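Give me structure tokens for this 337-residue protein.
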Amino acid sequence: MFSSISLVAFALTLVGPKAVSAHGFVHSYLIDGKNYTAWLPFTDPYESPVPARIERKIPDDGPVLDVTIPDIACNKGGETGAKASANVAAGDKIVFDWVNWPSDHMGPVSTYMASCNGECQNFDVSGAKWFKIDAAGYSNGKWAATQLIDNGFKWTSTVPSELKAGEYLVRHEIVALHSAGQPQYYPGCAQVKVTGGGSKVPSGSELVSLPGLYNGVQWPDIWDATFKTFAAPGPAVAFSGSSSGSDDSDSGSTPSSSHASSSSPTAASSAGSHSASSTHVNTSAATSAQESASPSAASHASSVVSSSKPTSTGRCSAKKRRGMVKRHVSHHAKRHH
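Here you go.
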């Protein structure tokens, strides 16, 4: 006979994919040809034993709404360490696979890293100092989140080749701007051990705190017909010009082959590519790879809103979304005809 816990786990397995379709989270990481399953909030808590993941826990597929609370760093539950880490050579790529993402949840995409100053498993994220390795906002008529969708719901970031070896958190995030006046933040953090011959650490001007990164950011109303451009918030990409992301980023280098090349009207495009190096994996979280496998504050927009604390629930009403999509399509048509 099934235990009550088993039945709950089975039920959540059935409803999980439907729930995930409403919002989203990273489902897996591709590092050095190995596929690491991310923390799966609808199933992992009910497994026995609970699986060891390289990603810190997240509660569900919903957003963080308040940029002034600790959850903005690695999501609720992400303050404490995960049980596993993945080795990655400086200069190698990390592919974040979201599996799905709603097309109307448009906004910037970014990837940051932070030194754990020792073992990440024992590192409290509240003390982290973050540096940007890539970010992209809105340019050439397309949001970074839309480009992620176009690339099969994947985003590729490159670990800076100069980075000093050690244990780091990798924070990947989409900010969804479909609900005007209430940005939705979807962060997640994975633990990696950087190897290689790099010797550099980010300068003080390249480091930010979370909370703190989004203080005073003016988020645009993406449904405004006169909206033109938006550069991703935050400092310059660390070690500028040599590290990169998978897309036309807001500072840096050449676009990676996994995304189409384009440049922002307000900031230099950035996304250098590096050849993948040999990576050694020493965690049981790795499985065989199933798939192969980017400085600026917010720029001027015609209609912007500042948000540090939630002004609404942030949850999406299907009726409201349909209305927004209709407005967006109409405005898009006016912009192009």
